[in-house]
TrEMBL record:
InterPro entries: DUF938, SAM-dependent_MTases_sf. It comes from Sander lucioperca (Pike-perch). Gene3D superfamilies: Vaccinia Virus protein VP39. Belongs to the UPF0585 family. Signal peptide: none annotated. This is Methyltransferase-like 26.
């Protein structure tokens, strides 16, 4: 059971956004992409029992940690974690069917992964979400080409030093990427530690 300090800090504020944004009165299907340690999915699943959660990861060590959290908490609404490379088409997402999900959650991935992962996230979400389904992303972002405050500028610089394909993405770029895939940016919510939650809604055909 790996423990990420950031996940411990942000899991409750993100849960508050989920409570406000999703229907808690009927059964829902959710996928967490890039689940990390497993702290988020087990925290959300304990609070939102109406949602069946599917954790996923690309990193093998993280997959083992998620399974350790599942075993510890014995939650009936968390499925075994699947190996998922978000840069691949949704047909390779562990058998998840088109228009089968009400919710996708993606926390602190977009800035610590190549652009292909961000593009794959929106492309896949556009395919596997039901009409009116929700994609929630969380992390630090640039706004209209500007990164604030200085701590986020420094963070972006350090990410790009580690990997030239990493770095904070601009919300306007994410919004246009979403629109190309049948999603629209419904809401931007300020979060602690200079992060934001972005809520993207899949458009219905009606």
């Amino acid at each position: 059971m790996l423990n990420a300090a950031a996940a411990e800090r942000n899991k409750e504020p993100i849960l508050a956004v989920l409570r406000e944004s999703v229907n808690t009165g009927r059964p829902l299907q959710a996928l967490e992409i890039s689940s990390g340690t497993g702290q988020h999915v087990t925290h959300f699943a304990q609070a939102l029992r109406n949602i069946i959660w599917q954790p996923s990861e690309y990193d093998r060590q993280s997959l083992a940690s998620i399974e350790a959290y599942r075993a510890h908490y014995q939650l009936h609404n968390v499925r075994p974690a699947i190996n998922l490379d978000v840069s691949l088409p949704h047909q390779y997402w562990g058998g998840i069917q088109p228009e089968s999900l009400d919710l996708i959650v993606n926390i602190n991935m977009i800035h610590i992964s190549p652009m292909a992962c961000t593009e794959g996230l929106f492309k896949g979400a556009g395919a596997v979400l039901k009409p009116q389904g929700l994609l929630l992303t969380y992390g630090p972002y640039a706004v209209n080409g500007q990164i604030t405050p200085q701590s986020n500028i420094d963070f972006d610089y350090s990410l790009r030093q580690r990997n030239s394909e990493w770095g904070l993405r601009d919300i306007s770029f994410l919004s246009s990427t979403a629109q190309r895939n049948g999603l629209f940016l419904e809401k931007i919510m300020d979060m602690p530690a200079n992060n934001k939650c972005l809520l993207f809604r899949k458009e219905s055909l009606v």
